[in-house]
Amino acid sequence: MTPDGGVTPNDLAAWLARLEARHPTAIELGLARAGQVWLRLDARPDYPVITVAGTNGKGSVCAYLEAVLGEAGYRVGRYTSPHLAHFNERIRVDGREAADADIVAALEAVEAVRGGVPLTYFEHTTLAALWLFRHQCVEAAVLEVGLGGRLDAVNLVDADCAVVTPVDLDHMDYLGPDREAIGFEKAGIMRPGRPAICADRAPPASLVRHAGAIGAGLQRLGADFRPEIGAADWCCRVGGRVYAALPPPAMPGRHQYDNAAAAIAAIDALRARLPVSVAAVRAGLARARLPGRFQVIGTAPLRALDVAHNPHAARALAAGLAGLPGRHLAVFAMLADKDVAGVVEPLTGLIDHWYLAGLTGPRGRPATDLAPLLAMRGLPHSVHADVAAAWRMACQAAGPADTIIAFGSFHTVAEVMALKAGNQDG
Question: pLDDT value at position 2?
């Protein structure tokens, strides 16, 4: 930062701090503001775009798409949010995180045409990612919706293929009180006459109706495409085509087969523009990984991280924990606007001790707010000042055959990852 408060040309951290401080609210849905800047920005895609929305599984589907298209030889841009360790995770080109200088150049390009239009942090950085993809000549882009779909800044782009992963209850203050309202918001990324992939086995009726009303080519998991899992491999049927002898997805959990199948269905839908061989599909599925999705970071005891922060994700986490031996110790911290009871319920009976931690920041929730809910259910727990303290106590208490799982928020996982990076994880 320069003495007058300006930003040095290559200081990404200063740029991001400036964006955080500039807009009074972190979330302000709507396309009007960002749309004005988008019209002035030389960033319109001249390449196929796959946009991914949904409550859970978005990041995994994006990782599979990026890996498979990359194995097919395409230069792929991938935009996701939030990040865990550093901002560059959000913007990837050709399988690598974008460099600080390239991101700063993109942020400056948006700033140059913004005029007096106020943009949120997410809107400004989304537009910057799109500018960067255009100017780094990507051949395909995979865009993850930040929140909802219809009014998210990512929806400024007309997706050539829209993917909606399972829809469940989250961000209800913004998206509505039930799956029908939320499903309609997610369906907003679909476009008339273009393929739309739905990876929800029982999608909200609102989503199906909207696809029919606009004439989107809706393909549904279980009806139009499906994974068929064998003892050693699996296949994915998409219409009359079969992608056979596929390796198990690199990310653990049975739900990952549905996520991988959704990615394959999207690639199949765009096969005329982006031809992909079955060999590339196999190679991509085998190497696609995403931090924080039941990510194992140590053994004896088994130590794992999961960003599960809503009831649907907690049910998937419970399925993964159910088969693991030893005691299950949870390091648990959540944001204040999340459904704690809905997350705890599926894991009741699977966790032997809960190490409750507080999260700081505007949306943070202290551990003392979690404790009454655990006490009411008679669940063994202890209260700790922060994630670091809770993690160290869990590590000290665990035996070699036990499992420690840290979950509840991206912030929870990020704090444990920082401890691990600093060799301070107990």
Answer: 46
- The position carrying tokens 């444990």 is 416
**Burial (CB count within 10 angstroms: exposed 0-12, middle 13-18, buried 19+), residue 36:** middle
Parallel/antiparallel/unpaired status of strands 353-356 and 381-383: parallel
CATH 3.40.1190.10 boundaries in the chain: 12-287
| Counts of helices then strands in the chain (DSSP H, E) | 15, 17
Instruction: Specify the pTM.
Output: 0.93
pLDDT, one tens digit per residue, over 259-318 is: 999 999 999 999 999 999 999 999 999 999 999 999 999 999 999 999 999 999 999 999
pLDDT single digits (tens) 190-214: 999 999 999 999 999 999 999 999 9
Q: b/e string for 366-383 if b means 16 or more Cβ within 10 A?
A: bbeebbeebeeeebebbb
d(C-alpha 130, C-alpha 45), whole Å: 8
Identify the pLDDT of residue 174: 80
**Bridge partners of 219?**
197
Asked if 42 and 169 touch (Cβ cutoff 8 Å), the reply is: no
First to last CA, the chain: 36
Instruction: Please tell me whether residue 260 adopts helix, strand or coil conformation.
Output: helix
Cβ(207)–Cβ(190) under 8 Å?
Answer: no
H or E stretch covering 212 = helix 205-214
12-287, CATH topology level = UDP-N-acetylmuramoyl-L-alanine:D-glutamate ligase (3.40.1190)
Q: Which helix (H) or strand (E) holds 219?
A: strand 217-220
Does residue 247 have a cis peptide bond before it, meaning omega lies within 30 degrees of 0?
A: no
Query: Which residue, among 232, 231, 222, 170, has the nearest Cα to 199 in the 3D structure?
Result: 222
Identify the band that residue 152 occupies on the pLDDT scale cut at 50, 70 and 90: very high
Q: Please give the backbone phi and psi of residue 258, each rounded to the nearest 5 degrees, phi first.
A: -65, -40
SS3 label, residue 97 = strand
* CA atoms lying within 13 Å on the CB side of residue 173: 6
- What percent of the chain is modeled with pLDDT above 70? 95
The CATH class of 295-421 is alpha beta
Domain with CATH 3.90.190.20 in the chain: 295-421
Residue labelled with tokens 């699996």: 234
